[in-house]
Amino acid sequence: MDIDMNQTLQNIASHYYGKELKDCTDREVYYILLDITKELMKSVPVIEGDRKLYYISAEFLIGKLLSNNLLNLGIYADVRKVLEENGISLAAVEEYEPEPSLGNGGLGRLAACFLDSIATLELPGDGVGLNYHLGLFHQAFQNYKQKELPDPWLSDNSWLNDTGKYYPVEFGDRTVHAHLYSIDVCGYSGKKNALKLFDLDTVNEAIVTEGIDFDKSDIEENLTLFLYPDDSDEKGRLLRVYQQYFLVSAGAQMIIEDVKAHGWPLTSISDHAVIQINDTHPSMVIPELIRLLMNEGLTIDQAIEQTEKTCAYTNHTILAEALEKWPESFLEKVAPQIVPIIEELDRRAKERSDNPKTAIIDDNGLVHMAHMDIHFSKSTNGVAKIHTDILKNTELHDFYELYPEKFNNKTNGITFRRWLQACNPQLTDWIISKIGDGFLTDSDELEKLLPFVKDKKALAELADIKMTKKKELAVFMKKRQNIDLDVNSIFDIQVKRLHEYKRQQMNLLSAINLYQEIKNGYKPEQKVTIIFGAKAAPAYILAKDIIHAILVFSQIVDSDPEVNKYMQVVMVENYDVTCAEKLIPAADISEQISLASKEASGTSNMKFMLNGAVTLGTDDGANVEIHDLVGGDNIFIFGTESEDVIESYAKGDYHPQEVLEKEPNLDPIVNFLVGEEMMALGDPECLHRLHHDITTKDWFMALRDLDAYMDERKKAYAAYADKDKWFAMALTNIAMAGYFSSDRTIAQYNDDIWKLK
Ligand code: 26V
């Protein structure tokens, strides 16, 4: 962009604050940059085309936007330089940007990466979601436990633009008006799309009482307060259905309005609109679009045919409990007008197949959202090769037999603009110095780094960059949680939502083993810092027990002088995108230890790899593809394979007691959870519940893989001793990460499903 950056920033500083840039506070500089960036983005042209994508999702975990927008406007380096010349650090300025709390984990972050890539590839495509005032929740630790607090992120001056538009949404007993806001999404291309977020003006943040408690019955006051409000009672579940219908009804109206505004006939809406349904939360867009098209004069056959050709569905999990099924009675209450349509879709689905396993409405009156998606959309995709294969062969096999042509794989990806350029400028500059900047637009060019695996000087430079990032993380953690990190230790990191299948508990047990070995006289050559970051769903008791156990154990290790010179256990509070951007570049080891077959893809595994961490993991999700790309010598893989896991579930033949009998070495590790040290600090009820679960149920087979995990982890720690070898592994990972650019993923969605141009 052709502007004198110093002059421009000086002018705004003088205009707003009556002083020179160098005299402004970091907060003032933040508002100056927000202002100029928003202004520049206004004149960025909107991406147009004859056909547009609507990526509809309950979550968009967009992270802070300042750096990303500066990068995509092409002025990041210029701004950073001007600020530096005025004694201002861009990183310090960014701290004043609140992180929009519009997502939970990988699903929402993926949606955000996709928006970046869609705009970068100059494809016309908007995100469609909800504007949750208080986000998911802010996680605080109190008495070694997770406490949930509201996470307000909205302020008068933010990236959110008010479009002034409203769409009426009819609920069973009232009509509300969805207010449309919009955030510009600027691609690296210099053109933009938007993230469209709906909200309700009557929502009242003051109804939140203790923590994140609020009256769940008053829809007009609570509708868009929180993402995933607690659904442990019926009112909470109903509220989720209200949110979902609100999103899809307003969204479908907006899409129809867009198509009509171009003068295109709705009888061929599928030529002009594609709706990508991100998991089952927005599935009601199918009956709602059919209903609205019929209101516009289409026959039911036309409306169903057009909807099926317009919609495409992405599945993000095989966990049965996460595949949504709503009682028909809920839908009757929230949106009675779509119930006859869902019944008609069910009737037609039963005509297509009499297999009860593919019914939309089952014998208990439950509406299976994923089933509706598969029958009445043109495409169903999984998010990594192994995940799609499991969908085809096992989980959704009956559907695959019915519609083989609808099933396809789209392995997830990440935007390198955020996950390399913005969060690791040092590594980016270093790569440019070695292979030029072609990889910024063609990520496969990273492979040109491969010859450097034998270049000792290059490997030493890479090690220096890792050290720089570890030091930055140490500063960040000191400031945020007053924790001191030893930058000379191995940084071994597991950050992701807390879930039993992701097996943070197995990581903890392995850490307990290391602790016990040290207490028994073993003196590791290399200190290790095991870092966790995870939020647990507020009603997920066992997940919260695992957090509790980690926090208590962390304290035990910390306060034991015999042990704390060899190991440290850290749990990052309120793990979010901002933390991820600090943690991932600093990692030596990336923990990806889900029970094989359960993690659909994972995306942090890709971010770690790109930043030169080596994966310690199971052959699950996208780890399988990482393994294929880097080869067995550049990854640490262990654990039961997915076929065997699936077989065990089918036979019901896994019993943790049997493992404990066969491997008595595990006993003291597991029993430590309820031993003296833990009990002295922790809550006996939580710790006993966790111990009981692991020893009697262990649904995700942590004990089955524990021995193999501990062995492989030791191998990884030992390998770290040979720095040349270690950084050759790290470099191989960086070099092979090009495949995981979300630009590649989006190009594939476009070629196979969207066909936007
Ligand atoms: C949701 C829930 C909600 C209620 C309780 C249990 C439970 C378990 C899992 C889920 C997952 C919902 C879908 C999801 O977030 N999937 C994630 O999508 C990512 C992007 O495709 C992918 O990388 C992760 O592997 C996958 O877990």
Number of helices: 31
What CATH first level of the largest domain would be assigned?
A: Alpha Beta
CATH topology annotation of the largest domain: Rossmann fold
Compute the number of structural domains: 3
CATH architecture of the largest domain: 3-Layer(aba) Sandwich
Task: Give the helix level as a range of percent.
Answer: 40-55%
Name the beta content range.
5-15%
The dominant shape is globular
The total strand number stands at: 19
Alpha-carbon distance between the two ends: 27 Å
Gyration radius over CA: 26 Å
The CATH fourth-level homologous superfamily of the largest domain: Glycogen Phosphorylase B
Bound molecules: ligand 26V
The average pLDDT value, as a whole number, equals 97
User: Widest sheet: strand order?
Assistant: 5-6-7-2-1-8-9-12-13
Question: How would you describe the overall organization of this protein?
Answer:
The protein is of the alpha/beta class and 757 residues long. It folds into three domains: 78 residues, no CATH class; 320 residues, Glycogen Phosphorylase B (Rossmann fold, 3-Layer(aba) Sandwich); 325 residues, Glycogen Phosphorylase B (Rossmann fold, 3-Layer(aba) Sandwich). It contains 31 helices and 19 strands. The strands form four sheets. Strands 5-6-7-2-1-8-9-12-13 form a nine-stranded mixed sheet. Strands 16-15-14-17-18-19 form a six-stranded parallel sheet, sandwiched between helices. β6 and β7 form a beta hairpin. α6 packs across α31. The chain is globular, with a radius of gyration of 26 Å. The protein starts with a helix and ends with a helix. The model has no long low-confidence stretch (mean pLDDT 97).
